[in-house]
Amino acid sequence: FTLAVLTLALGVAFLASEVFGVSLALGAFLGGMVVGRSDLAHQAAADALPMRDAFAVLFFVAVGMLFEPAIVVEQPLQVLAVIAIVVFGKSLAALALVLAYRYPLNTALTVSASLAQIGEFSFILAGLGMTLGLLPKEGMSLVLAGALISIALNPFVFAAVEPIRKWALKRSSWARELDRRADPFAELPMSTEQKYLSGQVVIVGYGRVGRRIAQALEGRGIPYVVAEQNRELVEDLRKKGIAAVSGNATDAAVLIQAHVATAAMLVVAMPDPINVRQMVDVARTLNPGIEIVLRTHSEEESQLLRRERIGTVFFGEEELAKGMLCHVMARFAPPPEP
After folding, report:
1. Rounded to an integer, what distance in angstroms lies between the CA atom of residue 254 and that of residue 237?
2. Are 66 and 43 a contacting pair, CB within 8 Å?
3. Helix axes 316-331 and 299-308, enclosed angle (nearest 10)
4. Domains of the chain by range and CATH?
5. Which residues pair with 118 in a beta bridge?
């Protein structure tokens, strides 16, 4: 699977370079977007995690070698202007857009803080500009300086989100009104039937596995609620009459809105070895007696989770082998005695 994902991403990069004349780096970015929009995005991200860490080290080393520290001393005003555009201008634009989509103030501030930096795509565009003669070498150095300094400042920007929010709420009635906004998909509608609020199954993730589990539960008349990060997918589920909430299930508020406190079972249908324990901790805190079912793609991770006894763990290859073995054994079973 991992080889197929890499082949697809590199194939898109090569075709984009050969057919449209863009750089391989820009083509690789497009390939990543293609993979990220597929139903297998979670599995691809989990399987590519070791490679991502290795390439991240190489990436930042390469960027550091391109950076000219003298630019900070020689052109300090230009560097400050780039940082101001990135940290303040980009954040304010993101804040306005998120508020325009009627998200609450806290969400808008968090999104704007997360975008108060520039990363690898800016280097791709800057490199393309240099190749086409549209950007001088000094401009590339300014972009690199802005990127490195904005990345270094980003933790402090995040730390300032809550103080800024409290300051705005204390001094502005408009800010208080914005903060009271609620994402209509972050909680179940008031008209939700009681069967989805107690004794239901909470499914985290509506990918290939989650969708099949939901369809099987639907066929047997077992009520369930879906917790899914993809807001557009949650909107589609709501249109089909399926109870669903939008958000990251590691956030206690999302599981609370899915009524996990009164649920019979929590099914984590996406392989997320990093955040699965946090989901389980939240669920067990809200509902100590809840039954938990987990999915993993790693044999080592499945063994570790089983030793911790945090739930029933299903390892993909192991379950596939069991299914194939049942078929083989049924084929060679002795005929029934007359």
Report:
1. 16
2. no
3. 100
4. 48-179 (no CATH), 194-329 (3.40.50.720)
5. none
AA letter at 161: V
pTM of the predicted protein model? 0.58
Q: pLDDT 10s per residue in the chain (338 long)?
A: 667 777 777 787 778 777 777 666 667 777 777 766 666 666 666 666 666 667 667 766 766 677 777 888 888 898 899 889 988 988 899 889 988 877 778 888 888 888 888 877 777 777 777 777 787 877 888 888 888 888 888 889 888 888 888 888 888 888 887 776 666 777 888 888 899 999 999 999 898 889 999 999 999 999 999 999 888 888 899 999 899 998 888 888 888 889 999 999 999 988 777 788 888 888 989 999 899 999 887 788 888 888 888 888 888 888 888 888 888 888 887 777 66
Return the amino acid letter for 184: P
- Report the C-alpha gap between 105 and 165 in whole angstroms: 8
Measured CA to CA in angstroms, residue 41 lies from 143, 183, 208, 210, 302 at distances of 30, 25, 11, 14, 20
CB 12 within 8 A of CB 31: yes
Q: Which residue has the tokens 């080393």?
A: 61
